[in-house]
Amino acid sequence: MTEAVEYDVVVLGGGPVGENVVDRTRAAGLSTALVESELVGGECSYWACVPSKALLRPVLARVDARRVPGLAGAVGGPLDTAAVFAHRDYWTNDWNDDGQLDWLGSIGVHLYRGHGRLYGSRKVAVTSPEGEHHVLSARHAVVVCTGTRAVIPDVPGIAGARPWTSREATSAREVPGRLLIVGGSVVAAEMATAWQGLGSQVTVLARDSGLLPRMEPFAGELVAEALREAGAVVRTGVSVEAVVREGSTGPVRVVLQGGETLEGDELLMATGRAPRTEDIGLETVGLKPGDWIAVDDSCRVPGHDWLYAVGDVNHRALLTHQGKYQARITGAVIAARAAGSGELDTSRWGAHVATADTEALPQAVFTDPEAAAVGLTLAEAGRAGYRVRAVDYDLGRVSGAGLYADGYRGRARMVVDLDREVLLGVTFVGPGAAELVHAATIAVAGEVPIARLWHAVPSFPTVSEIWLRLLEAYRG
């Protein structure tokens, strides 16, 4: 190894979370190095959030347009898949990160390309693709932002079947004739929506009793109903026992529990995520390789006053926007400690704690219909010991929804803490519902009393009138 190069902060992992950490620490005047083995911008920019939404947007726009009188007849044909793929490629910059590198240079961050590993206390060793070795030493903090990878379950025949993960599903350049999707959570539901809309015959095989199991049950029910109406097959409560691929390019077959066999041209395994910690040197600081990294509410690793783990890798909230939120919190924590500014603000909603991870976590799922939620579900609130009431309303009965689309179908729920009369959680399912969730996030994070929400008047005729209807239903 070469002699260590010293920085104030060394960040291991250059996805959106790592980018936000370096942005915040540089803004605080700290010298910062970033280590990345793949593309700067990470999973979200190249294989997840960005390309998936580029594929989904034309599918959802066409679905919405077909529900608008006077427009429906003009959008009856198939999508131009070449144009959709070209638009996706534009947003991923053809899987080139030059723009990200320009930004890093503009804020004075030193990038080390290569595989980084912890190298004992406050050090990271980097091996470049050319075989060069560097040791980076951190005066104040090392921040692990290595994210997650797709989990492919160890079922017989899976290796030879060459299944897709989310990476292949978002970067494919041809529409498979038949696509089998194993899984029922967000990746499965979104990719089923995208590829069915692009012309594939999709079959979803979910082990759970419904889709989107971490949301209110009606969310998965409405999404499954729409997928079936679009021509997809959705089966729940099923397990895959084996997989067989014929030759190098032949069809793939999955064998279900009980012996039934299904055939497709491609197989997407959307069966969860695991931390990318198996080869980052955790053992050199007394942690177990391959594990999620436990942290406190400031994202610092207990027992290591210099080590932080931010984003998916700490398993607090596997969402890009939430990892970026953690990064902003962590950047502020590192800057405050480096400046020796005294006590941190660790009060419940203080500047140095990631409270929203547990109390106001928002998510949007870009299916048809869209599903968006923040905070606790009714079941979660009950398990947490709150005295609650759920208020439900048919979203299609709101005037703005009927104007948005003929036959608008959706549902909304707010979960009310009866002792404080504030919202613990809100869920919206319906076309365009993702644009409703931030108002709910403000209400939940701000613990806005229902008596005050009554004075937040929604504009007519928008779908946001759902707020008035929910509050009326609560008041009786």
Automatic annotation (TrEMBL):
The keyword Methyltransferase does not apply. Its cofactor is FAD. Residues 362-467 form the Pyridine nucleotide-disulphide oxidoreductase dimerisation domain. Keywords: FAD, Flavoprotein, NAD. InterPro entries: Class-I_Pyr_Nuc-Dis_Oxidored, FAD/NAD-bd_sf, FAD/NAD-binding_dom, FAD/NAD-linked_Rdtase_dimer_sf, Pyr_nuc-diS_OxRdtase, Pyr_nucl-diS_OxRdtase_dimer. Residues 7-321 form the FAD/NAD(P)-binding domain. Transmembrane segments: none annotated. Belongs to the class-I pyridine nucleotide-disulfide oxidoreductase family. This is NAD(P)/FAD-dependent oxidoreductase. It comes from Streptomyces goshikiensis. The lineage of its organism: Bacteria, Bacillati, Actinomycetota, Actinomycetes, Kitasatosporales.
